[in-house]
Amino acid sequence: MLTKEDTVKDKEEEEEEKEKPRFNFNLYMVEKARSVNQALNDAVLLREPQKIHEAMRYSLLAGGKRVRPVLCIAACELVGGNESTAMAAACSIEMIHTMSLIHDDLPCMDNDDLRRGKPTNHKVFGEDIAVLAGDALLAFAFEHIAVSTSGVSPERIVAAIGELAKSVGTEGLVAGQVVDINSEGLSDVGLERLEFIHLHKTAALLEGAVVIGAILGGGSNEHVENLRMFARYVGLMFQVVDDVLDVTKSSKELGKTAGKDLVADKVTYPKLLGIEKSNEFAQKLNRDAQQQLSGFDPVKAAPLIALANYIAYRQN
Amino acid sequence: MLTKEDTVKDKEEEEEEKEKPRFNFNLYMVEKARSVNQALNDAVLLREPQKIHEAMRYSLLAGGKRVRPVLCIAACELVGGNESTAMAAACSIEMIHTMSLIHDDLPCMDNDDLRRGKPTNHKVFGEDIAVLAGDALLAFAFEHIAVSTSGVSPERIVAAIGELAKSVGTEGLVAGQVVDINSEGLSDVGLERLEFIHLHKTAALLEGAVVIGAILGGGSNEHVENLRMFARYVGLMFQVVDDVLDVTKSSKELGKTAGKDLVADKVTYPKLLGIEKSNEFAQKLNRDAQQQLSGFDPVKAAPLIALANYIAYRQN
What family, per the record (chains A, B) (predicted)? Predict the structure, then answer.
């Protein structure tokens, strides 16, 4: 005869069994993004000199899905670390992403007035402060990961800092932006150049996020390199999907101006491959990305698999 | 009776005795600056994407006395390290100094067309590339210290990276520049605010240079803190002397436009204290700085003592 306790245990086990395959991605994203937002708010306090901290917080806390920090935390957890191990690094990556948006929006670069429906940083604080807010976020990203990461060996922190820096400089964001600027008005931009731009402008920081999470979480070299390739495929896919959405969705559906690439006469995947082939390419990149996770426990890899699918099938 | 060998030895000892107090500062500076220039040239190679590396090298290799990297190396050697231990960090500090010059010269900041007699970075490469060259130098500074420092424990490298980042952000260069910008046109800028600006705009990176050198060289906490105070006094003195030279020397003597502060109606030490009291203040800061070195072997401390005197008594 079953005791009451046994019945309860069985029910719990049953529910656990039911829960396992049904990974709740939306809940996961909401909870992780909430933790990240809290940590960002605590990392950059409003203190003296007020104006520069106001400017940094204005763009850093302007919302966004926090895809990069969540990728960092998910990679850390996948290899055995926990959220708190990766949180400082996850925030550092979002600071760098924010810096790149502030500087890219400047009049001397893309000259954008709006970002996520709000006036851009230089529109509110002036160009001088916007340049400095970007510089300060970039520097603080390195201070934060160096000073606030705990429970990790200094060897791994140094390695993570090297990866973080590489994802920004002339092998990362800056390289992508420079080649993008140099390609404006060129009529012969082919697939190779387009891929270079996106691998640097978009994929590099996603790669940094995942690799840094894996390093800080204690991942083996093999696992770190698997995750690096996963992130590189996801990063490129992110941009292919973005290009397709720009020509297939309305501004209302996207929540931002649609058709911007066409107006700017920018080379995109749909322009070079057509929409159908671009969609096929994105699906292939998603498969290639997920293939890199085959050596991991699928239950533990669920968040990264879901993140890849989310990026592949998003509608805005 | 003395053998020939003894005579030679005596002569050598005599010459050593003679040499000891006569530390050849000019030779020291020339040799260290040459090593630093070589290391900077090797650190940022001209590679793809060409244009951004050209822009970075244009400003990084434009000359200058390399005071910050030499301070870093001298502090490292003082606590028992050697030149090669500190070289990557010394180069990182010069990269950050160069980044701050490129961004400060931008039209939205100080709008300068000339720097060390050459057109400023944005005049040659355009504003967009100048912003990105600064960003890339800032990021690369952290990559370089993290990846290329050898023979030092990772704990000390992480600590040095924390110090480097702090010297740039809202407790360093950026704070000084922001408060300087906010003080333009104010009639009530007093000594306290002036000191805040200079401690951040000028002293912070000098402090970073010395402290990082001492950390990487294996200095004790006490020695690191003595050297921190030394550098802070020297940094403030650097600026007081600069202010005095601006009003007492001709453009020809300075090798740059004299009287700039007067024209810009900037608050300076001579304006608040008069020239004589400013000179006295600089002398006091030099004494206070050197007082911090009293716990070190004076022969080993000779380079830092000479550097402080050089900054105090320079004529341009």
Answer: Belongs to the FPP/GGPP synthase family.
CA angle B212, A137, A266 (to 5 degrees): 125
Residue B1 has pLDDT above 50, yes or no: no
Please tell me the distance in Å from B196's CA to the nearest CA on chain A. 11
Determine whether the interchain pair A138/B135 forms a contact, defined as Cβ–Cβ distance below 8 Å: yes
**Residue B161 and residue A142: Cβ atoms within 8 Å?**
yes
Complex ipTM, two decimals? 0.91
Instruction: Tell me the domain boundaries of chain A.
Output: 25-313
Cβ contact, residue pair B132, A178, below 8 Å:
yes
Q: Prior bond to B49 cis, omega within 30?
A: yes
* Nearest residue of A to residue B107, measured between CA atoms: A128
Q: Which residue reads 């066409």 in tokens? A: A262
Query: What homologous superfamily is domain A25-313 in, according to CATH?
Result: Farnesyl Diphosphate Synthase (1.10.600.10)
User: Which residues 162-221 of A have a C-beta within 8 angstroms of B?
Assistant: 162, 164-166, 168-170, 172-175, 177-179, 181-182
Q: pLDDT tens digits, residue range B26-68?
A: 999 999 999 999 999 999 999 999 999 999 999 999 988 999 9
pLDDT at B261: 76
Q: Please provide residue B115's backbone torsions phi and psi, each rounded to the nearest 5 degrees.
A: -145, 120
CB-based contact B142 A164, cutoff 8 Å: yes
Which tokens sit at B35? 């090593």
Share of chain A above pLDDT 90, in %: 80
**Mean pLDDT lowest for which of A194-203, B232-241, B243-252?**
B243-252
**Which residues of chain A neighbour B51 with C-beta distances below 8 Å?**
178, 182
Instruction: Tell me: pLDDT of B245 over 80.
Output: yes
CB contact under 8 A, B147 and A136: no
Instruction: Compute the half-sphere exposure of residue B191: CA atoms within 13 Å on the CB side of its CA.
Output: 9
- Burial class from Cβ neighbours inside 10 Å (0-12, 13-18, 19+) for residue B309 reads middle
Asked whether the predicted pLDDT for residue B150 surpasses 60, the reply is: yes
B46 touching A, CB under 8 A?
no
Distance CA B141, CA B148 (A): 10
